[in-house]
Amino acid sequence: MASLLRSLRPTLLQPLMAARYASFEAPLIISPAQLHQNFKENQHVAILDTTWFMPNSPRKAYDEFQKRRLPGAQFLDLDKVASSHELGLKHMMPSAVQFADACEKFGIQPSTHVVLYDAHGVFSSPRALFMFRNLGHHNSSILNGGLPLWDAKSFPIDTKPPSSPHSKSQYPPPELDQNAIRSYDQMITNSALNPSSSLEAELVIDARSSGRFTGKDPEPRPGLSSGHIPNSFSLPFNLFLKTEQGSQGSTYTVFREASEIRTELDNAVGAAQAERIIKGEVTAVTTCGSGMTAGVIWLGLKLLGAPKLSLYDESWTGYAMRPTSRIEMA
To answer: Which is the catalytic residue, given 48, 61, 119, 288?
Structure first.
């Protein structure tokens, strides 16, 4: 049946399915208490652990998932549910078929409420939400505070070996929002436009640390220059988050209030440009080191109601790897 649905993609099936489920739009963020209430009410929710660690980290996301996770959670590997890239870049936006295959494996249907979380609190789950939302699955949310806040609220943690995968579902390949992703060529063209004088310029917001943006600090990836894309703005992703104290001296992150997020946006791009973003008068393009924490900025802007958002999927790694790229510092 799944193969038959794929073969029907050029027909009216896909638009009809999209229209049928267009009304299913969950909150962008839910709290542990809200998710726990869903459990108590026996609402069908698919929970995915989307934890991702930097390549130089000794921690292994899947190993930690096997030891501790939310009840009923399955593991979404963002490096595997991804498109291949000519430069070998990881966690690129998957194709529609790759995404549909993953959803079927997880037992997710187009109407399923999908809740995404990570072990940092908030780090990689926004990138996963960016994927779901821009591939048409709007009935999706992140769990604010992730696994650590869920644990801090004394909600149940599953420590037994993961159960066998759910029964496969049927999920027609969706349509990618064509405005979701910016390519290298688009970034090069836009980098020549001064956003203070050109109404055509998109505002590029870089989620890396200020030291990496200015070129003062090195990149974590060996041999890669730091610096930034011309005419881009620095807004480290952690400024949209606040750090909370967890158990045994650990810390985790949650999203700040919308007013605090707006203040950080004003500080980064200026109040006038921030207002243009919120009103949809200009597109904001988020970027970071590899396309992961750009999702945090993307989600923060979504929480402010910004309607025109894109993400540079290759981000700094793809940009700086190319010898023809112009890199600015300071």
So the answer is: 288
